[in-house]
Amino acid sequence: MATMKALVKSEQARGLSLRRVEIPTITEDHEVLVKVKYASICGTDLHIYQWNEWAKNRINTPQISGHEFSGEVIGVGKAVKGVQIGDFVSAETHIPCGYCRLCRTGNMHICRNMKILGVDTDGVFAEYAKVPEVVLWKNSPALSQHFASVQEPLGNAVFTVTTGGVAGRSVLITGAGPIGLMAIQVAKALGAGPIIVSEVKDYRLDMAAKNGADYVFNPTKEDVFRKVKDITNEEGVEVALEMSGNEKALALCIDALLPSGHISALGVFDKPFPIDINKVIFKNITLYGITGRKMFETWYIASSLLLNKRVDLNKIVTHLLPLEEWEKGFLLMEQGNCGKVVLKIGE
Question: Which domain covers residue 125, as residue numbers?
Fold first, then answer.
């Protein structure tokens, strides 16, 4: 039996374990086997590592974690037509059924029967991964392999920003984690300004400034609402991007928004909480929930931004670690003392 190294959620408790497991084999005609080169750590992976309430209710153990990757196709099923052996690929995380009403109306990213790579299936923190052809994205050879592994979260940022129509408009971004940092660059590339960022961690505030934010504020030390009003001549911002999953941040977005403005909410909240819906109504606010990426509209935009050097991931990927140092990467994520962390899996 041929085996590989893999990072496995083996216990229903905090942590992961690096193990040797069997290399997956193609069993369905539409499947593709990929030799994984790089995989990046996502907030979802951190929740699985921490074993929070969401993970306890969603993850079956044992299971290989991870869903953001790049690699080389080394095997294809008989029905596969879009990729071939040797292709340089990444993949969409959302695995759609292809036949429900949502899939058939251009909304595969919210498929009714969706499975999520590394959540509902074995993931990509491993030397080899098996994925269905429908989620694969063929990369340009001009794109660096470790940056290619970060396109999935970049797609989150693209979806969040483009939904708001930011060209020539003032933007507030609450939360400067890796996707929030990407959103700064995407918004700037699309002509937004000024770009104001609210973030509680000073490390990430510094990163936000380096990634192109015009103003950065720590809401635990400054009145961000007042700052926004001062910057916008008392009007408020035209677009707000909520990336933190913090209820106070969403309240700030609603309060700091110009009437008739737009909020794109990507951050996932730990629990339900009340909002002042009358403010949303009487300010004529559009509140747009963001999940995943448009398949594959946002992938085309993200790829174009990277290949045309409108987005620079060098300013966002702060750590490139071997798979064996996976725990260092997760602890950096937990502490917030990093941008994007990428694991080198194979040659």
Answer: 3-150+316-344
